[in-house]
Automatic annotation (TrEMBL):
Superkingdom, natural source: Bacteria
Record GO terms (molecular function): cysteine-type peptidase activity
SMART domains per UniProt: Pept_C1
Organism encoding this protein: Micromonospora carbonacea
Lineage, top ranks: Bacteria, Bacillati, Actinomycetota, Actinomycetes, Micromonosporales
Domain annotation Peptidase C1A papain C-terminal: ranges: 74-307
Descriptive protein name: Peptidase
Length: 315
């Protein structure tokens, strides 16, 4: 990136001149990274049973009209970070994958954490919210058979590991970006949260219905303009393709025609997790983004947790 961030200045001018652009671009924590440094914060490589990035984009574009329609099986809006209008959040805090292509581990871990909270009806913001710990993306990534930081991973393999082995708390294997040996704590077998299965769908109406039961995992194509996103409903407007990325989807809104997603680039990027019709709640972290239905392959396929064989609680 140029030292004066010329790309950002040109992007802001393009967005200002585009009446269909309803998102904002600013200096973010990833704005001035080199291409190599930025791409190190992605990491989705489609697996043998998954669509390619190009096929995901095409699939989303093909069913854009379907996803834009209100789903008969689901309400017109949903947000797991703001349940019942009182900011009761079932989503753990924003994290930072750092300079490692571990996005799949973070997106899948966030989905499993939220599904466990919903199954136990223990929100992160409840007085007893710390009974359910943050789970370890390090274990999922470094022990789960990934290809390493430079090569990334894919969701179906991550969910299979979470079903076959399970995931320990973050305290049992803290995450550090950069390839590491699988180094679990001594009592790790007794601290596992294990899913009983997972499912995927390419039906946008089903995605919305599933989201009313728990957050989902999805992957999409990242373009250069996305690194500067600071709020609004993102739609790709300018810049080349940077790679594939996976995140956790925590809500949707048919009025804004957008998905709400939790990213893992820390809180110096993105926006707070709310839609325009929701009352602002103090203390909300940046790190989320809204993305338009049918954009960048975001809704080509999504994955969900079917249930749990075991949910580890502490204290």
């Amino acid at each position: 990136m140029p030292a004066d961030n010329e790309f950002l200045e040109q992007l802001q001018a393009r967005l200002a001149a585009d009446p269909t652009a309803n998102w904002t671009a600013e200096e973010t924590s990833v704005s001035r990274l080199s291409k190599e440094e930025f791409r190190a914060r992605l990491g989705y490589v489609p697996g043998p049973d998954e669509l390619s990035l190009e096929e995901r984009v095409q699939r989303s574009e093909e069913h854009r009209d379907v996803v834009r329609a209100a789903a008969a099986e689901a309400p017109p809006e949903w947000n797991w970070t703001n349940m019942n209008g009182i900011a009761r959040s079932f989503v753990n805090p924003i994290r930072d994958q750092g300079s490692c292509g571990s996005c799949v581990a973070f997106g899948v871990t966030a989905t499993i954490e939220a599904a466990a909270r919903i199954a136990e009806n223990i929100a992160y913001t409840d007085p007893n919210g710390n009974v359910l710990p943050e789970l370890s993306p390090a274990q999922l990534f470094y022990c789960g058979g990934s290809y390493g930081c430079r090569n990334g991973w894919y969701p179906s393999a991550a969910f299979q590991y979470a079903e076959r082995v399970g995931i320990v708390p973050e305290s049992c294997f803290p995450y550090t970006p950069g390839d590491q040996p699988c180094n679990l704590c001594n009592d790790w077998q007794n601290e596992l949260t294990v899913i009983s299965g997972y499912s995927w769908t390419s039906d946008p109406s089903m995605m919305k219905a599933w989201l009313t039961t728990a957050p989902l995992t999805t992957c999409f194509t990242i373009y250069e303009d996305f690194r500067h996103y600071s709020g609004g409903v993102y739609k790709h407007r300018w810049g080349g393709q940077e790679g594939g990325h996976c995140v956790c989807v925590v809500g949707y809104n048919d009025y804004e025609q957008a998905w709400l997603c939790k990213n893992q680039w820390n809180t110096g990027w993105g926006q707070v997790p709310r839609f325009e019709n929701e009352q602002y709640q103090p203390g909300l972290e940046r790190g989320y983004f809204k993305i338009g239905y049918g954009e960048c392959g975001i809704d080509a396929t999504m994955w969900k947790v079917d249930g749990f064989s075991r949910i580890y609680t502490q204290y």
